[in-house]
Structures are given as C-alpha cells and as structure tokens.
C-alpha cells in the first residue's frame, strides 16, 4: 500500500503537521518539533511560521480511526 502524507490529529500539538511527517518517515515527532524550534530561531521566526501554516492548509487530515479504536456492534 502506498504511503500518504497526512496530518495526524491523534498526536498533535497545534495542527498535527510534525506528527504527520513523523508517521510518514517512521521517526519520532519530537525530532521534527525540535528541528522546527531550531529553524525558527535561526531564520527569525517568520519564514518558519509561514511554512507551517502553508503545510497546515495543504496537508490533508488523517481520516483513519486510531489503532486502538474498537468497533462495538
């Protein structure tokens, strides 16, 4: 099955962009969050915020139920 980049709303802090990237690359979301903070500091905050908002708008939300979701019938 082909992987698709989606925003993970189960492990989100703001919009789920970094947790979605982490799921897509099989990494820890904390790594992406720390790199984002370092990038924000080094670039003067504004470009990183703009890129995050663009990613927030462009990356679709993950509509799959969580792995621990149970269906009761």
Report on this model:
By secondary structure, the chain is an all-alpha fold. It has a domain at 19-58. Helix content is 51%, strand content 0%. The protein has three helices and no strands. It has helices at 17-25, 29-43, 46-58. The N and C termini lie far apart (28 Å). 11% of the residues are buried. The model has no long low-confidence stretch (mean pLDDT 88).
Write the layout of secondary structure elements.
Blueprint: H1 17-25, H2 29-43, H3 46-58
What distinguishing features does this structure have?
elongated, 3 helices, 73 residues, single chain, mainly alpha
Order of helices and strands: HHH
- Average pLDDT metric: 88
Radius of gyration: 14 Å
Strand percentage: under 5%
Shape: elongated
Distance between the termini: 28 Å
In short:
With 73 residues, this protein is mainly alpha-helical. It has three helices and no strands.
């Amino acid at each position: 099955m082909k992987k698709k980049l989606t925003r993970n709303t189960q492990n989100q802090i703001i919009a789920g962009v970094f947790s979605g990237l982490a799921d897509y690359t099989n990494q820890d979301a904390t790594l992406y969050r720390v790199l984002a903070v370092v990038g924000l500091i080094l670039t003067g905050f504004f470009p990183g915020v703009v890129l995050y908002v663009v990613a927030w708008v462009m990356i679709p939300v993950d509509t799959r139920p969580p792995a621990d979701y149970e269906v009761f019938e």
